[in-house]
Amino acid sequence: MSAAVHAPGYRVRGHRAPVHRAPVHRIPVHRATHDQNGDTMTDDRVLTAIRRSVTEVLPELDPRLVTEDVSLTDLGANSIDRIDVVTMTMDELGISLSVIEFQDVHDIGSLARLLREHVR
Questions:
Q1: Please, are residues 105 and 111 in contact by the beta-carbon 8 Å criterion?
Q2: Cα–Cα distance between 99 and 88 in angstroms, integer?
Q3: H or E segment and range at residue 4
Q4: DSSP, res 58
Q5: Domain spans of the chain?
Q6: Distance CA 36, CA 96 (A)
Q7: How many CA atoms lie within 13 A of 102 on its CB side?
Q8: Which of 78, 66, 74, 81 minimizes the C-alpha distance to 106?
Q9: CATH topology for the 26-118 domain
Q10: What pTM does this model have?
C-alpha cells in the first residue's frame, strides 16, 4: 500500500483526496552561461533568442509553437528561412559558428544546446 499525504493545495473545497508520493525521475536543471559581458544568462535566453528569430522570419507563426521538440522545417521554414533564423540568433547571442557544427542539429532543442555550448 502506498503512503498518502495530506496536501491542502491539492484538493477541491469539500473533498479530500489522498496525494500519493511518486519518485522523481527527472528534475529540470537550468544551467547558467555567460554573455559577452560576463553576465549570467540562463538557457531561457537562448530559447528566447531562437523564438525571436523564428517569429521575425516567419511572422505568421504563433511563438508558442516554437518548442524544443519541433524542427524549423516542421514550423514551415524553407532552407533560406532556416539560415536566416540561425544567423539572426547567432548575431543576437554574439557568436559565430561554422556550417559543419550544425550537422547534428535536427530540432530547436539541439540548436539551443549547440548555441549554449558556444555562448560565453
A1: yes
A2: 14
A3: strand 4-5
A4: S
A5: 26-118
A6: 13
A7: 14
A8: 74
A9: 1.10.1200
A10: 0.64
- C-alpha to C-alpha distance for 48 and 108, rounded to whole angstroms: 11
- Give the residue among 86, 85, 89 at the shortest CA–CA distance from 101: 86
User: How sure is the predictor about 1, in pLDDT bands with cuts at 50, 70 and 90?
Assistant: very low
Give the cell for residue 11: 484538493
56-69 residue pLDDT tens: 999 999 989 999 99
Contact 114, 50 (CB under 8 A): no
Quick: pLDDT tens for 44-54: 899 999 999 99
Q: Cell 530540432 sits at which residue?
A: 107
Write phi, then psi, for 83 (nearest 5 degrees): -65, -45
Helix%, strand%, coil% for the chain, nearest 5: 40, 10, 50
* pLDDT confidence band for 106 (50 / 70 / 90): very high
